[in-house]
Design brief:
Blueprint: E1 2-6, H1 12-25, E2 29-32, H2 40-50, E3 55-58, E4 61-62, H3 68-81, E5 86-91, H4 95-100, H5 109-124, E6 129-132, E7 137-140, E8 150-153, H6 158-167, E9 170-174, H7 178-195, E10 202-211, H8 216-229, H9 237-246, H10 251-254, E11 256-258, H11 260-273, E12 277-282, H12 286-299
Parallel strand pairs: 1-2, 1-12, 2-3, 3-5, 4-5, 5-8, 8-9, 9-10, 10-11, 10-12
Antiparallel strand pairs: 6-7
């Protein structure tokens, strides 16, 4: 199981600095969300030219505001610029964002993602696309001298996992517990990939992580911090469904918190659940973040 880092960034300089440190420590990858800060692909194009030896991944670019042809051109350009080290993670985002912020209908997101991937996938391979769907149309020929990046999807529910298994290279999970990964996510996407004649899909799992001194008081404080820091994820329907499936009350139950030995055991156990890349979202006090990073670096050997 590979180990990567999952983190928001507020500037290109922040990403460059973060990537420099992570690459020097030997981490496999950086997983960067696209939210309301810098454009993630643009930031990766700049940072990736300055920092070698680490994979840059979007986790994830929302699909609704970007036509798949435009995203294919952007992703290929970035991947060429940074020497074929881009993983393109995409996803439908969430109804409150798509409809509330962008005034775009979130009707039938699985259909939307299927049509999006049917256009995006071939375009990333520089193939001609002539597609007319219910929600998307593309009549495109693009010529960009760059290899296709891996294509990943933030697929959580059954139907989207099946679509992803057929049309992409794997899934990026968040707020999804180990039992759900082992019994739902991995078998669903793997079966779909096998039926489509595709290789075994990659399973990237992001988890909040905090190494404490192991005392009950420190654990309680870290859980309280996690409950506040990640509260929004317990309110978004797709993540709420994953937490409910696992039997978790909220994100604090999913967060990997505890002494070094306990945290290490929980991380290592995810490989048995089918995770191919563990993406750590470090949180806690400055001292706890430093201790967490030390443990993660130790897992790289």
């Amino acid at each position: 199981m590979k180990i990567g880092l999952f983190s928001f960034v507020d500037s290109i300089d922040t990403l460059t600095s973060m990537a420099t440190v992570a690459a020097g420590q030997g981490f496999d990858s950086l997983w960067i969300p696209q939210t309301f800060g810098p454009d993630t692909l643009t930031a990766i194009a700049v940072a990736g030219q300055q920092v070698p030896d680490i994979t840059f991944a979007t986790a994830v670019v929302p699909t609704y505001p970007r036509h798949p042809q435009m995203l294919a051109q952007q992703a290929l350009t970035v991947n060429g610029a940074i020497g074929n080290r881009l993983v393109l993670g995409v996803g439908p985002s969430h109804k409150p964002v798509v409809e509330g912020s962008w005034n775009i209908s979130f009707d039938k997101p699985v259909r939307h993602m299927r049509e999006y991937l049917e256009i995006l996938g071939p375009l990333l391979e520089n193939k001609s696309v002539r597609f007319e769907g219910e929600t998307l149309t593309a009549k495109a020929d693009i010529q960009i001298e760059a290899p296709a990046p891996k294509l990943m999807v933030s697929a959580l529910g059954t139907q989207l996992l099946k679509v992803t298994g057929r049309l992409a290279d794997g899934t990026i999970l968040w707020m999804t517990g180990p039992t759900t990964i082992a019994q739902h996510s991995v078998p669903t996407i793997s079966e779909a990939a096998a039926e489509a004649g595709r290789p075994s899909p990659e399973i990237v799992a992001g988890f909040p992580v905090c190494v404490t001194d192991g005392s009950p008081e420190a654990t309680r404080e870290a859980r309280d911090r996690a409950a506040k820091s990640f509260v929004v994820y317990g309110q978004l329907p797709s993540y709420r469904a994953m937490l409910d499936r696992e039997g978790y009350e909220g994100p604090a139950d999913l967060a990997i918190i505890g002494g070094a030995a306990e945290v290490e055991d929980r991380i290592r156990s995810l490989e048995g659940a089918g995770v191919t890349t563990f993406a750590a979202s470090e949180f806690g006090s400055r001292e706890q973040r430093e201790t967490t990073r030390e443990l993660l670096v130790g897992l790289l050997s």
